[in-house]
Amino acid sequence: MSDPLLEISDLHVDFNTYDGRSKVINGVDLHVDEGETVAIVGESGCGKSVTAETIMSMLPQPPGEITGGELRYRGEELLGDPPAHKRVKAESMGMIFQDPMTSLSPVFTVGEMMRDVLTYNGKTEVGWLELGKSVLGRRGADEKAMRERSIELLDRLQIPDPEGVLDRYPVELSGGMRQRVLIAMALLGEPEFLIADEPTTALDVTVQDQLIELLREQIDREGLSMLYITHNLGVARRIADRIYVMYAGEIAEVGTRDEILDEPLHPYSRGLIDSIPKLTAFQREGIDGLLPDYTEPPQGCRFHPRCPAAMDGVCDGEKPPLYEPADGHQVACYLYDDQMNAQDALEVAQTEIEFEGGSLDHPEVSSSLGDETAAESADRTEMNEPTSGQTDGGNR
Ligand SMILES: Nc1ncnc2c1ncn2[C@@H]1O[C@H](COP(=O)(O)OP(=O)(O)OP(=O)(O)O)[C@@H](O)[C@H]1O
Ligand code: NI
Fold first, then answer.
1. Which of 302, 303, 301 is nearest to 315 (CA)?
2. Lowest-confidence segment of 138-142, 296-300, 333-337 by average pLDDT
3. CA 69/CA 352 separation, integer angstroms
4. Which of 205, 210, 188, 144 has the alpha carbon at shortest distance from 392?
5. pTM of the model
6. ipTM of the complex
7. Within a domain: residue 32?
8. Which of 22, 66, 274, 372 could staple 285 via S-S, CB 3.0–4.6 A?
9. How many whole angstroms from 45 Cα to the centroid of ligand 1?
10. How many whole angstroms from 231 Cα to the centroid of ligand 2?
11. Are residues 225 and 304 in the same domain?
């Protein structure tokens, strides 16, 4: 196996809060191989964004504090070397904040923002625009090249009238168009690794589908690697090669998309998947309870207080190790052991883990698994996507 592009090992992140020291990220291991798209899935508050912020060198410190672990990019350790981290981020990483209203400035036009990205994206080597070296005396030429590059990207993201859009302010665009602009901006710096962090607010299904489709196309076209953060397993199913299921700052399970969705082993993964409403059945099972208090997390497996298969004296002892019943399919749960193969493990999962039709406390994980077709949700799109600008017409 080749070395991963990005590798996190045994990451620990604490926060100092008024209530005490909050031990949020507790020994996370994660990697993204070259050309791979990996999703992190978990309910609100489980530590997805903190993980993303750590990777992007954007963790607010204080109150955050990285108390252990490593982050390697192409083998280079970055957590202990902030300048290297900043350089790698500028040269190789792109971020899509999927909350356009907070991440796009209201006072600049799309064109101005894209130009800023191109001017300040921190490439240390002279790129296709010979940025940085040649601003003096060549401003006009650079402006033109930047504008052309921006238009090309907006066009690739199927934004109608890209030239017109450059002169617009974010508020003049619909939600879907703003999202596309954000993706275009993330691609401007020619990253090789993208990280996308979805907000918990549900986006309209059709708009979301289109964005995922577009993102997928760009990823494939450029051969990019991506870490996609979502609370929605349906979205993960559409975009990810592999899925990490995160619970309370720990990785509960990791496997290929199909392993996680079709043969989940961890009780939490099974609960998440059960809690997704099926279109044909209104009755749903779910996971009772809430995420633990990070200032006093449960001993042992952090999920054990909510787990229907918890074993007294076992799960409340030591943190469970990662068992690997199939190559690359790992699960942090004492129901399994090193002797089990994939078949045995699945049998255990099916016989030992039974959720009693409990309620689902986290509505955001209940989004569609993706069974709903675009047509079925088209009516809602009309109502939900604001279209205050004129630039949103005609391309659907
Ligand atoms: N700036 C901060 N100060 C204090 N605690 C924080 C801070 N940021 C995050 N946390 C703690 O870390 C936990 C995980 O937060 P994080 O934003 O990573 O969750 P998430 O999985 O991204 O959730 P969501 O799906 O809602 O975005 C929070 O519940 C909170 O306790
Ligand atoms: Ni988040």
1. 301
2. 138-142
3. 34
4. 210
5. 0.84
6. 0.99
7. yes
8. 274
9. 5
10. 9
11. no
